[in-house]
Amino acid sequence: DGGITQSPKYLFRKEGQNVTLSCEQNLNHDAMYWYRQDPGQGLRLIYYSQIVNDFQKGDIAEGYSVSREKKESFPLTVTSAQKNPTAFYLCASKWSASGRNEQFFGPGTRLTVL
Amino acid sequence: AQSVAQPEDQVNVAEGNPLTVKCTYSVSGNPYLFWYVQYPNRGLQFLLKYITGDNLVKGSYGFEAEFNKSQTSFHLKKPSALVSDSALYFCAVDDNYGQNFVFGPGTRLSVLP
Fold it and tell me: Residues in chain B whose beta carbon is closer than 8 A to a beta carbon of chain A?
């Protein structure tokens, strides 16, 4: 899982609550990403950021929010507006915008709505 | 728009036999292609990538992949499968803007002892 950490590993949320998932990297990567993975499915992009203080919506951004105040950190907030948030969440990072570079992934956070 | 297909949801192979996990792609320019492996409840691990040059790319854990431009394929291979290779495998292509990957749906590989 390289130099990317995600916390917590498991997270339980009551309906109507906002929760924040942490993602930190010490790889000096410019770009960071959040993906959602549902059972038996591939990865879907939630948000990504190419540079500090800038981020873009991915394919399924509704009900989620992010910030990128520091290069090392890209926290994801799952808001109460996300109707079905139970999933496995993966954070990734890579060197800047060159398409030649692979993404490095964190170990993931499993979110369960009670 | 870029897209990636992994035509097999599941691949079963006996230990010691060669394995192939298939990937085909559609891109508007020169493709940058990647393979990842995911073990249960873990993040994705990078295996190998094709950027340019030799069509046969060697990667981690004895895996290799063959880039075929005419067939728009990038199949993952290993000469002799191990039980520990059992996992979920993802193929990905860069979106040509260097901003994000497009991932395939994944193929579950089961290596039987």
Answer: 32, 34, 36, 41-46, 49, 51, 90, 94-101, 103-106
